[in-house]
């Protein structure tokens, strides 16, 4: 498709104007970043895998009645999505202690939490996406009380879906991050899942071995990020089990 005007370029994606009013095109880059972009690299094939995996998860959520911005995949690296007004929060759901939670609270990584814990961070790279409370969110008007109830409901429904899908293929969903967008149907606003869901935004551990199959492979120099993401794609049936890791975009149509 012919590209239109670029709207925004982030660390992992470029957003273009869509072909129809109210749509955008998400282009998935091969760039990998960690520690608020202090660590950077280009991982060949990562964008292709994330495009396919995000399509898989978003399609599944749409099918069970969890609304998302995803419309359809256009090609190996692009997908057509509904244009939304992003709520300026990262919504994190944790099932096991890991990463910053383990550091903040002194809990061993891998400790199962008594229930899923939902956290919120302000989307601001210059501040390092700081953790915020519902009091902050209400006081500064980032989201209303009704918004927060809807966001919590969406986050927990995504967690139920993702946990089941991953457990079925021998993967533990440790935690994940989503973003929420506002859409308007006439005078009415509703909230939907936006951005992406991929191993870039989840912690995924093999249930039997504990092997990490997510961006921690890059953060912690644990091996090939492409191999890890390819393994997730194979288990989910997004790629044939006989496929080799993506090194050229022609391997996924």
Give the tags.
Phosphorylase Kinase, domain 1; seven-stranded antiparallel β-sheet; 14 strands; D-amino Acid Aminotransferase, Chain A, domain 1; alpha+beta; 2 domains; five-stranded antiparallel β-sheet; 6 helices; 253 residues
Structural account:
The protein is of the alpha+beta class and 253 residues long. The chain folds into 2 domains: 6-84 and 225-247, Phosphorylase Kinase, domain 1; 85-206, ATP-grasp fold, B domain (D-amino Acid Aminotransferase, Chain A, domain 1, 2-Layer Sandwich), CATH 3.30.470. The protein is 28% helix and 32% strand. The chain contains 6 helices and 14 strands. It has helices at residues 46-63, 99-105, 134-139, 145-167, 216-219, 225-236; strands spanning 6-9, 13-17, 23-28, 31-34, 39-42, 70-73, 78-82, 85-86, 89-96, 112-122, 131-132, 171-185, 188-194, 202-206. Strands 8, 9, 10, 11, 12, 13 and 14 form a 7-stranded antiparallel β-sheet that branches. Strands 1-2-3-7-6 form a 5-stranded antiparallel β-sheet, covered by helices on one side. Strands 4-5 form a two-stranded antiparallel sheet. Helix 1 runs parallel beside helix 6. The longest helix has 23 residues, at 145-167. The chain is globular, with a radius of gyration of 18 Å. The relative contact order is 0.16.
């Amino acid at each position: 498709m012919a590209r239109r005007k670029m709207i925004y370029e982030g660390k992992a994606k470029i957003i273009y104007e869509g072909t129809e009013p109210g749509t955008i095109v998400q282009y998935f880059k091969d760039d990998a970043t960690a520690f608020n972009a202090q660590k950077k690299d280009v991982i060949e094939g990562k964008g292709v895998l994330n495009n396919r995996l995000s399509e898989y998860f978003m399609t599944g959520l749409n099918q069970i009645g969890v609304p998302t911005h995803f419309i359809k995949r256009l090609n190996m690296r692009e997908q057509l999505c509904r244009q939304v007004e992003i709520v300026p929060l990262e919504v994190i759901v944790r099932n096991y202690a890991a990463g910053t939670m383990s550091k903040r609270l002194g809990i061993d990584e891998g400790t199962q939490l008594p229930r899923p814990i939902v956290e919120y961070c302000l989307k601001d790279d210059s501040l390092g996406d700081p953790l915020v409370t519902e009091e902050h969110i209400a006081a500064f008007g980032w989201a209303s009380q009704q918004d927060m109830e809807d966001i919590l409901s969406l986050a927990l429904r995504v967690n139920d879906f993702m946990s089941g899908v991953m457990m079925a293929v021998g993967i533990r969903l440790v935690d994940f991050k989503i973003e929420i967008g506002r859409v308007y149907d006439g005078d009415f606003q509703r909230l939907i899942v936006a951005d992406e869901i991929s191993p870039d935004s989840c912690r995924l551990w093999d249930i039997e071995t504990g092997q990490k199959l997510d961006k921690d492979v890059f953060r912690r120099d644990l091996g090939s990020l492409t191999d890890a993401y390819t393994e997730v794609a194979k288990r989910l049936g997004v790629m044939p089990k006989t496929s080799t890791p993506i090194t050229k975009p022609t391997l996924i149509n």
